[in-house]
Amino acid sequence: MYGTIFDSVEQGFAHNPYNHEHRERVCIQSGDVDGLREVLKERFPGRYGRLSKDPVKQEIYMGIVAVSIACRAAIDGGLHPETAFTLSDVTINKLDACKDAVSPIRISQNAEIQYATLVQEMNEKKEGDAASENRHISHCKDYVFAHLHGKLTVQEIADAIGLESNYLSSLFKKSQGVSLKQYIRHQKIKLVKNLLTYSSYSYSEIAAYLGFASQSHMGQDFKKETGITPRVFRERNASEDFMNDTI
Asked: Taking residues 11-40, what's their average pLDDT?
């Protein structure tokens, strides 16, 4: 190995700049298709690793390396691994069938652009989904957060934002994947956790403060969300200063 490195240095050989590979990865990971196209225009004749004496195999192997790196970059960018690996398998099979030294370059670069495009489309969809969140859902969430410290019903929220309660429930479930009642319970339990960890309020005081019908009701909802009782949670998470309260 050291002899090979010495020979390369003596002959003035240098590998393809690492910065070039890094920029390719960043473009794919971020879905920057235009940026990737510009990077791929850069070529460094005589500066690529010598993987085979056969010129066709050399380009095939270089293509496989490029596709493997692109595949991982796309996954890091959020592309589903199964999608990324499938594209990699298809491309490598195409590379394996190449009979000339030009086709592998075209095939591997097309795959890189496809990876970047898939990440770009995924990012655009996320942005579109976030931007199109129903304004009623936003108003609903705002109302919930502002009124967690008390009894809260779907009817009350619907009246406050000017919707029929059944319609609001259906709209919320479709948008968020959980019912509005479940969402309210989840948000309340998050506050219960906070108070159990960082306050010395008793269980009954926390239940009354957050609008639960009773301490028992709070305990039942808490166990549904966490799998444990408020007492067990406090024993595991509260600091010494807050461990003196009893039920």
From this structure: 81
Structure tokens at 175: 């948008």
Q: How many independent structural domains does the chain possess?
A: 2
Asked whether the predicted pLDDT for residue 239 surpasses 70, the reply is no
Q: Alpha helix (H) ranges present in the chain? A: 2-10, 18-30, 33-41, 55-76, 81-96, 103-131, 135-146, 154-161, 165-176, 180-198, 203-209, 215-226, 230-237
Which of 96, 130, 164 is where one domain is finished? Answer: 130
Per-residue pLDDT at 17 exceeds 80: no
The domain that contains 187 carries what CATH number?
1.10.10.60
Q: Is 60 exceeded by the pLDDT of residue 2?
A: no
Token reading at 227: 């799998």
Q: Per-residue pLDDT averaged across 27-49, rounded?
A: 82
Of 130, 153, 171, the residue that ends a domain is 130
173 near 179, Cβ under 8 Å? Answer: yes
Rounded Cα–Cα distance for residues 51 and 47 (Å) = 12
What residue numbers bound the domain in which 232 lies? 135-242
Position 120 in a domain: yes
